[in-house]
Design brief:
This protein is α/β, with parallel strands linked by helices. About 25% of the residues lie in helices and about 30% in strands. Strands 3, 7, 8, 11, 12, 19 and 20 form a 7-stranded mixed sheet that branches. Strands 15-14-13-16-17-18 form a 6-stranded parallel sheet, with helices on both faces. It has a 3-stranded antiparallel sheet with strand order 2-1-6, with helices on one face. The relative contact order is 0.15. GO terms for molecular function: L-idonate 5-dehydrogenase [NAD(P)+] activity; zinc ion binding.
């Protein structure tokens, strides 16, 4: 097979790899589309994600769809030939968190395209990746790959909404509208939010999300007074999602959320201690939740995509063959032009 293999920062090579025999419970795919995630961008440009540095060649990619072209022993023959969304996570099923039904917090998680352990966990940006049959969610053949490859990030957004609780009729704030923030806006709208406000420091993603999901868009770099106005009268929003990983945005969420409201931290904040106005949090009795990955929401995401309940098509702004993979990564980093970029094998 051919695969996108990262050797070090900005050294990504499309290499030939041997097709290994399938083990029990495994299938081989023909890759349909692969979406570039923020973690892929960090690996590509920085050679690391947080503390996890690339120490050996790493096949990138975890947001993928494909068609099953070969099945291994013990796999239901009905899966052969099916179009599938691929859940990139493989919780162990044995640890305490898995036993409590919190598989997304698994202590021994296997997740595609990660340098978190050595040997690295290889990803799925390959023309014939091997995955577990249990990771495959079959969909109708007519489902376009370019939409199906949104299943994983949409699942992340849906899990964030799950953490916030009932959003029906609520006023919602989302800080940071990269792909995850944009998908949270779509998921919150589907969940019945009455009013959605979004913030960012770039006009292009704000304009896009304003067209498809948000009632109010604010560039906090250009008009910080609008965000400050939300803090008057002890806050404006019932629920806030911090999706940028920015400390100023976190403070905006804290101050702009009404007493008794909910704040969900989705973006990765800088490492170390994070200053928070805890007295405000205490006095307003805010509920603060972390949101990490997803579990049952992956199946919900696939259903929402295949039924058309959530339309992600406007978020796809670029698609490149792997022969131009470096261009794809450069485009994905250009927020003035792109929201979500995908690659495919030509």
């Amino acid at each position: 097979m051919r695969a996108c293999v990262l050797h070090r920062a900005e050294d990504l090579r499309v290499e030939a790899r041997d097709d290994r025999p399938l083990g029990a419970g495994e299938v081989r795919l023909r890759l349909g589309r692969g979406s570039l995630c923020g973690s892929d961008l960090h690996y590509y440009f920085d050679g690391r994600v947080g503390d996890f540095a690339v120490r050996e060649p790493l096949i990138l990619g975890h947001e993928v769809s494909g068609d099953v072209v070969e099945i291994g022993p013990g796999v239901d023959p009905a899966l052969l030939g099916r179009r599938v969304a691929v859940d990139p996570s493989q919780p162990c099923g044995r640890c305490e968190d898995c036993r409590r039904g919190r598989e997304n917090l698994c202590a021994d998680m296997v997740f595609f395209g990660s340098a978190a352990r050595l040997p690295h966990l290889q990803g799925a940006f390959a023309d014939a990746p091997v995955v577990r049959a249990s990771q495959c969610h079959p969909v109708p053949d007519e489902m376009p790959h370019e939409r199906l490859a949104f299943a994983e990030p949409l699942a992340v957004a849906m899990h964030a909404c799950t953490r916030a609780g009932n959003l029906l009729g609520k006023r919602v704030l989302i800080t940071g509208v990269g792909p995850i923030g944009a998908l949270i806006a779509l998921a919150a709208r589907k969940a019945g939010a009455a009013h959605i406000a979004v913030t960012d420091v770039a006009d292009a993603p704000l304009a896009l999300v304003g067209r498809i999901a948000a009632d109010e868009t604010v560039n906090t770099a250009a008009a910080p007074e609008r965000a400050r106005a939300w803090q008057e009268g002890r806050g404006t929003f019932d629920a806030a999602f911090e999706a940028s990983g920015n400390l100023d945005a976190l403070e905006t969420c804290l101050l702009a959320t009404r007493p008794g409201g909910t704040l969900v931290q989705v973006g990765f904040l800088p490492g170390g201690r994070v200053p928070v106005q805890m007295n405000r949090l205490m006095a307003k009795e805010l509920q603060v939740h972390g949101s990490f990955r997803f579990h049952e929401e992956f199946a919900w995401s696939v259903r929402a995509l295949t039924s058309g309940a959530i339309d992600v098509a406007p978020l796809l702004t670029g698609a490149y063959p792997v022969s131009r993979v470096d261009e794809a990564f450069a485009a994905a980093r250009d927020r003035a032009r792109h929201m979500k970029v995908q690659i495919y094998f030509d």
